[in-house]
Amino acid sequence: MMSASAVFVQLIGGVALLIWAVRMVRTGVVRAFGSSLRAVLASATRNRTMAAFAGAGVTVLMQSATATAMLLTSFSRSGLVPLAMALAVVLGADVGSAIAAQLLSLDVSYLWPVFVTAGVFMFLSMEADRAQCIGRALIGLGLLTLSLQTLRLTVVPLAESETFGLVLAALGSEPVLAAILAAGITWAAHSSLAVVLVIATLALTGAVTPTLAIAAVLGANVGAAAAPLSANWGGAPEAKRVPLGNMLMRGVVAAVLVPFSGVLADIATSHGLVGARLTVDVHLAFNIVVALIFIPLVGPVSRLLERLVPAAAQPADPKRPRYLGSAATDMSSEALAAAHREALALGDRVEAMLVKSMEALETGDPKLIREIRTSDDAVDAVNEAIKLHLVRMSRKGMSEEDSRRFMEILSFTTNLEHIGDVIDKQLLELAEKKGRGNLAFSSEGLADLRAFHARVASNFATALNVFATGDTDLARRLFAEKTTIRDLERHYAERHYARLRDGVKLSMETTSIHMDVLRDLKRIHGHFVVVAQPILEACGELSDTRLRASAPAPTPGGRETKPEEFRDTSTSGAQPA
CA-CA to 295 of 20 to 30 Å: which in 168, 280, 401, 568? Predict the structure, then answer.
């Protein structure tokens, strides 16, 4: 004989094991077949009947209508599945969860060693991810049947407890209170399947009356619908509609039926339904009734939800161009002006990435790194839009002047994309590497990097002004910075090597990161400084080569060119110095 406290602890442990086992089955199936399940749901939403059947089938596999509801919420939020079809899938998922309860209510506890052994074997002996996930699901299924066996053994002495009997008797006379309590427990457990199986186990021993079992099952269904709603409450309005609709549909039917739990219990017992069978059958019948009532009404329900939860004002999508439009392609000058304006806006985004990259290098802040990477995704998308815009415009024929501007814009935006890639794939990788190693620059090294970064960022702002105005003086000043940046990189590298010779520990730990940052900043400078090249070429300020002659070379006219006439210039925007 166990004490009351021991029985209670064992009951809590059995319930916890049941909830965890259901979660293991769900995560194992989702990880093994998640993409296939998503494809099934997405392809089956052409009509509401097929959508409901697909929801039921997926939920039987995942053992969780809550997981299916969460999956449909993401689909509906992104617009991949219409709201009405998503509601039909969720109604089918609720039926699928009830079917899973029917299967698990069978006494197959003797199979738990088979499931666990097979699952452990697959998980440990197979290297394929899918096989390990299937093994995880089998382990979860074995633990689930084991937990049900534990609960059945535990509730026998619990049912004999006078105190427990008085509590259950009080709840049996208050079906509304029992339904609310069951709803709260199910919401906390995030699994109606687990709660219904616990109720069925208690009913098996006669610990709960048929009236109490029915009221608790109805409450558990409402609580299961509340779980995904609360999880998405702080999200976008579109994320709330599917779980809210599921809760409203279940809640309306449950609210009508709960006061009549006693009448329903009398009808059920008169037909021979008692104990665990009564619990799981009522659970299945309730979800079938809800599905039959509301599947034909998913259209009106979806429109009601759109009124109850209107879409929020959408902020400007950073991946959408601001100034490009179909009307601008009718005239090449207007189209080029729009592309020029969009390229300047793109430059502002890349400049913001460059400025923030120094803070990311110093702090290694993961949130800031994610923010900069998101900006790079937007830069790539807008650059692609500018290219498509220019290609469409070029088909209409352009003047020589428009062709020149066309190439300048295309070269400039391509280099902006390269700069974004260097920041994303090089500087941010270095920031993460520094953070993972818990490294820090020396004070002198950090000061050098800040100074070099500030010089590059200042020149980037000048490059944007050069592109915007085409000013020759600005272009000349920017182009002269090539030599300055090259000398500064060499200067700061030599200072770093001096610290290494002096044995500065922090410099020794971060030497590869430090040198890579200098190199990448110089690469970034090389990508944007070429904006000055076509302006200077048009003014005749650049020669055709950047090579210096070792001796005076004869020209085609016989005149010897003096070495000082050769200029140090860059020859291609695609290959920056």
Answer: 280
Cβ contact 522:512 at 8 Å: no
- 96-150 pLDDT, tens digit per residue, is 888 888 887 777 777 888 889 999 999 888 888 788 888 988 998 888 888 877 7
Contact 248, 226 (CB under 8 A): no
Amino acid at site 534 = P
Residues 321/385, Cβ–Cβ less than 8 Å: yes
Residue that the structure tokens 């999200």 belong to: 235
Residue 317 has phi, psi (to 5 degrees) of: -75, 120
Question: What is the rounded distance in angstroms from the CA atom of residue 257 to the CA atom of residue 220?
Answer: 13
Q: Which residue type does 462 have?
A: T
Contact 360, 431 (CB under 8 A): yes
Strand partners, 561: 553
Contact 73, 232 (CB under 8 A): yes
What phi, psi does 553 have (nearest 5°)? -110, 140
Nearest to 509 by CA among 438, 564, 560: 438
H helix intervals, 44-111: 48-62, 65-78, 83-104
Measured in degrees and rounded to the nearest 5, phi and psi for residue 561 equal -95, 130
- Could you tell me if 510 and 364 are in contact, meaning their C-beta atoms sit under 8 angstroms apart? no
Q: What residues pair up with 554 in beta bridges, in sequence order?
A: 560
What number of residues does the chain have?
577
Nearest CA to 25 among 114, 137, 192?
Answer: 137
Separation between Cα atoms, residue 574 and residue 476, nearest integer Å = 19
How far apart CA 336 and CA 315 sit, in angstroms, is 27
Report the Cα 71 to chain-centroid distance in Å.
Answer: 12
Which CA distances in Å does 462 have to 65, 457, 474, 526? 58, 9, 7, 13
- 260 is written with which tokens? 């009549």
- Torsion sign, CA atoms 228, 231, 233, 239: negative
- The closest alpha carbon to 378, from 356, 400, 352, belongs to 352
| Cβ within 8 Å of residue 230, ≥6 positions away | 187
Q: What is the C-alpha to C-alpha distance for residues 220 and 214, in angstroms, rounded to an integer?
A: 10
The confidence score (pLDDT) of residue 567 equals 37
Spatial separation of the C-alpha atoms in residues 89 and 291, rounded to whole Å: 10
CA distance 171 to 199: 13
Q: Give pLDDT, residue 443.
A: 92
pLDDT of residue 571: 35
One DSSP character per residue, 302-314 reads: HHHHHHHSPPPPP
190, 66 contact by CB (below 8 A): yes
Q: Whose CA is closest to 98, among 55, 142, 65?
A: 65
Residues lower than pLDDT 50 in the chain: 326-330, 547, 549-577
Q: Which two tokens stand for residue 474?
A: 């600005």
Give, in order, the Cα–Cα distances in Å from 18 to each of 13, 22, 68, 146, 225: 9, 6, 19, 8, 19
* Contact by Cβ (8 Å): 94, 221: yes
CB contact at 8 A, 192 and 260: no
SS3 561: strand
Residue owning tokens 């009404």: 297
- What are the residues whose beta carbons fall under 8 Å from the beta carbon of 244, sequence distance 6 or more? 229, 305, 308, 309
